[in-house]
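Comment thread on ticket #2218

A.B. wrote:
> Attaching the input chain for the structure job we discussed in standup.
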Amino acid sequence: MSDLHLGLAGVGRIGVMHARTIVATPGIGRLSIADVDAARAEAVAGDLGADPVADVEALLAAGIDGLVVATGTAQHPELIRAGVQAGIPVFSEKPVAPDVALSLPVLDFIARHDGVVRIGHQRRYDAGYLEAKRAHSAGELGWLHAIRAVTCDMTPPPVAFIATSGGLFRDCSVHDFDVIRWITGREIVEVYARGSNNGDPEIGKVGDVDSALAVCTLDDGTLAVVTASRYNGAGHDVRLELQGSKGSLEVGLDARTALRSAEPGVSFPDGPPHTTFAERFADAYRAEIAAFADLVRGIDGELCRPEDAVAASRVADAAQESLLTGAPVRVVG
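C.D. wrote:
> Ran it. Output below, let me know if you need it in another format.
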């Protein structure tokens, strides 16, 4: 297949990032863009040398080889179905739908139409997470006795976004739930969650927390602790620690890790911390788009399948339920 022609639906914050990545990816020769804000689509397209189109219908009629969905979550099911119906591969940002109940009909539609769909869990293309998966699969860590996952933003997004995000576990920790499943090959079967609000009280008023912790039990009894916060002033902090009977491994521990040692004479980490998820995972996002281009050409890789994305969302739903009820919740799949 010659240079690809991709379509992009949605050019908000993450959509613009994808647009820039797409036009810089070797083997992608053309990008067409649609957004509900036509002026915004035209501006982004003009900056990048892409083609603005009126709407998604026009996008699908433009002869695109694959569709990238970066709209708001509520539009994901409709656009995934439209791409599958058009017979082209689809890459959609997470999640498949606002909740698991709304995701199941989408999974059924994809299966009935033999659709090729992948979901944006970019950590599967981060070098550290890939190494953690390799080391665990090779048995280098032995059996795992503890997993600790951290996802902390430096500053919170706008409250208007938080109000529609589905909650901190669905918005942030779902990535941790996905990589825990992906790396270990195990299912998370129970979640016990707690949360707090010590930052902007408006976050609590829209029904969310600004910091949370979930204790997860895997199907082999392994314990995992997942923490998240909107207020990590030290920087954007995303890490995963695997502690095993033979060895331990930490993803995200480098010169730019957003913490400092309290021990005398220790200067590590000594680099400037990351400040945003886009910066922390810039290489992973580039690799993810390149992997989608390969998928369009018929070469599959580690991109997250929709059923796996929904499995991670089941855990996030259970965590949100536990947060509300104060009781452990079994993950039913």
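A.B. wrote:
> Thanks. Noting for the ticket: Residues 9 and 273 are 32 Å apart (CA to CA).
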